[in-house]
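forwarding from the other thread:

> can someone predict this with S-adenosylmethionine?

sure thing
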Amino acid sequence: SNARDADSAIRQTDTDAAGARLSSVQKGYLPDSFVKAFVPRAHLQARPPLINVGTYVRSEGIDELVGGWLDLAEQEGKKAQIVSMGAGSDTRFWRIETGPRKGRLAAYIEVDFAEVTTKKAMAIKKSKDLCGILGQSEDIKLESGGIALHSPIYHLIPADLRLPPAATLGPALAASDSSLLSPNLPTLLLWECVLVYMSPEASFSLIQWFVEYFSHGTGPLGGIVYEMFGLSDSFGRVMHENLKARGVSLPGAVPYPDVASLPNRFLQHGFTMAHALTLRDIRRTYISSSEAERISTLEMLDEIEELELVLGHYAITWGVRLVESSNSLKAPW
Ligand code: SAM
């Protein structure tokens, strides 16, 4: 059916994202020894400099916010939880657990379509490196015929995020003996390049479901959304048409014509604060001069105008919903 083709085009975007990440790793932009385990050999080709730079800026920007969240949790004397939705082949869990903030997580939960979680669970089981970081082999369990994976901290669960969370995500998080997600720990919700593929109504219900889940606890809630926006200007329309030609539409981007509108993703749910920055502004202002210098030596990038035009249509939005007990949680978040 058409709906099935559209979903398969959406899932295919993960193969693109992982291939782009591997390309920027191989060019020296990003360190990540885990991503190659998730990229099929057929997708190993190098990407153009513009894609590598975009992948680098996006990844650094989100890593900075995630690191800041883990630091804030530590200041409160708590471990943190992360729920990454539409996680695809993302490697962030393994990078955190082998980096300077290792041991700071109480739970890391990834959600994606069953087809994607099944592939990822198989890739994890095949890799000694990835499994070794999850725990002892007897603590790593494939469930439901291999579409879900559980380990002491890391969990991979299948769900279609467009469906009512109370019927899908809710039962999946409650599945084992005790809930996978405590409402009493500082928890970060991550949507890296996924809400654009969903209707605004479905995204609204999803975020609101988490707000209600945490309204019964003491854990402050943080959220990060990375997405394309601004489809109504001429360049945005061209980018959207290119995606449509590959069967991908972006219903979730429609209510966000400009960067000023993006914080509403969180503010409409009563978040205490929210900010958004385009990748263009992050590249210009937030990448240190020594990093900028290092990056500039990796590849020739002569189309700076085009780069800025493209990066100006992608943004990272982040927000926090504080609870009374977490009044020490302040800037930089
Ligand atoms: N977050 C990863 C990253 O940034 O590298 C992957 C991004 S990829 C562009 C989008 C991912 O979202 C895909 O893995 C896709 O299967 C997933 N996705 C899109 N719509 C979804 C839905 N309704 N339910 C679950 N997953 C979804």
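Residues 2-326 form a domain with the Rossmann fold fold (CATH 3.40.50.150). thats all i got for now
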